[in-house]
Write a structure and sequence with these properties.
The protein has about 80 residues and is mainly α. The chain is built from three helices and no strands. The chain is elongated, with a radius of gyration of 26 Å.
């Protein structure tokens, strides 16, 4: 493979097995990508549409929450 180092074959060459493994690998790769897109879409939906501070609750680091001063002023009037 690289210079004097030659690795032995893991499996004997079998075109039918190679085709099945390649198709399985492709399907699993697409499923992983779709799972990633689904999670990213859910985070964007919660952040931009619902605005339920999902990322603040999931954050490992402390998050400062700004107080809404307009609500405080409305209550005092």
């Amino acid at each position: 493979m690289f210079g004097p180092v030659h690795l032995p074959a893991i499996l004997p060459a079998n075109p039918a097995l190679c085709a099945v493994l390649r198709k399985t690998h492709t399907i699993l790769a697409y499923l992983l990508f779709l799972t990633f897109l689904g999670h990213l879409s859910a985070v964007l939906f919660h952040t931009l549409v619902i605005r339920d501070r999902l990322l603040n609750r999931m954050a490992v680091w402390p998050v400062r929450v700004k107080k809404n001063t307009s609500q405080i002023q409305d209550k005092t009037l």
